[in-house]
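Annex B. Sample input.
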Amino acid sequence: MSKEINYAATERSITEQKTAEQKVVEKENTFLIECMKENLNQARHVENERMLFVTLFAALAGGALAIISSMDIAPIIKQVIILLLILLNAMCLRLTIRWNDVFSAHWVKAEEIYLLILSQHYTDCQIPQNKYYHFDNIKYEKKGVMIYIHTGTMFKMVNYILLLLLIAVFVYSLTQFGNR
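Annex B, continued. Sample output.
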């Protein structure tokens, strides 16, 4: 009978130890999930900032170019306004590059946490594909349908196009200044 009691006590002890380990893992997972959510929220916030700033700058540049083209003001004033827009565009481009880096850092950290949580339950070769949330859209893009361009790259392209447009307008204004 004493062997049965010891066996039951040992089994109970092992069960309690497993339960305690499971609670620790659950607490760790809860913390990791909150960290992942926070990184995704920060990435979303950064994406909204860069989208708002680039959109506002594009509207400002378009409005300023429309105003200076329709008003009869001195060419030197037009050129100063265009140069200011070029400087603002350079600042916008630099901020866009910085926001892209910050966005990527948060996004990569969220993916690392996601994979860490999964690695506790699966071996590397068994980790299932996430059907509900893609961290890297290039992996899940249908082949041959279209070329995938990251959003950050698109924002940089918009900035470069605006910069080229503003430089072209500035060069045009210089040629017009000599004709007047």
